[in-house]
Amino acid sequence: MADKSINKLTAQLAKIEGLIPKKEVKNPSVSKASIGWQLDHALKVFNAVSEWTENSNPNEYQYKFNLMRTVLFPLGYFPRGKVKAPKYVIPPEIINVEDLKSQIQTAKSHIEKLQVLPKNAFYKHFIFGKLPKTKTLRFLYMHTNHHLKIVNDILNK
Q1: DSSP letters along 24-63, please?
Q2: Share of the chain above pLDDT 90, in %
Q3: H or E element at residue 124
């Protein structure tokens, strides 16, 4: 299961990398933010969540029911415009190519580390609660996919 998730995340990072040349593209009818903003934010979240998970203490993980997680994770979907991102994952005003490429390299190194973490390594999300490794990988996929869909809409509308 984790290998499949890792492969999906790797594919998403490759897609992000391929979109970097379009970082300046905007479409206000879809989003106030540019493609670069979407990519930068997705990478900031990816790297912050990965780092948190890598530094977690698996002995501190304990399952707790969470309605939002139970509903949204099987759907693989986040509604748009419903949650405000924490400050530490908000992109800067000017997004440069070098920074995006650096964040992608960091994300790739996180994928290698995530792959070998114990199953109870976890990320504590402010809405979904403690997510064990498989659910953390699912969250990363869903969040990245959410922003890639927005990018796709910016390009196609």
Answers
A1: T--BTTTBSS-HHHHHHHHHHHHHHHHHHHHTS-GGG---
A2: 91
A3: strand 122-125
Q: Where are the domains of the chain?
A: 1-20+32-56+73-83+98-155
Largest CA distance in the chain: 47
Q: Which fold has domain 1-20+32-56+73-83+98-155?
A: Four Helix Bundle (Hemerythrin (Met), subunit A) (1.20.120)
Q: How far is CA 103 from CA 43, 51, 52, 97, in A?
A: 6, 13, 16, 10
d(CA 154, CA 9): 22
Q: Secondary structure of 126-155 in the HEC alphabet?
A: CCCEEEEHHHHHHHHHHHHHHHHHHHHHHH
Query: How are the residues of the chain apportioned to helix, strand and coil, as percentages rounded to the nearest 5?
Result: 65, 5, 30
Which tens digit of pLDDT belongs to each residue from 69-104? 999 999 998 889 888 888 999 999 999 999 999 999
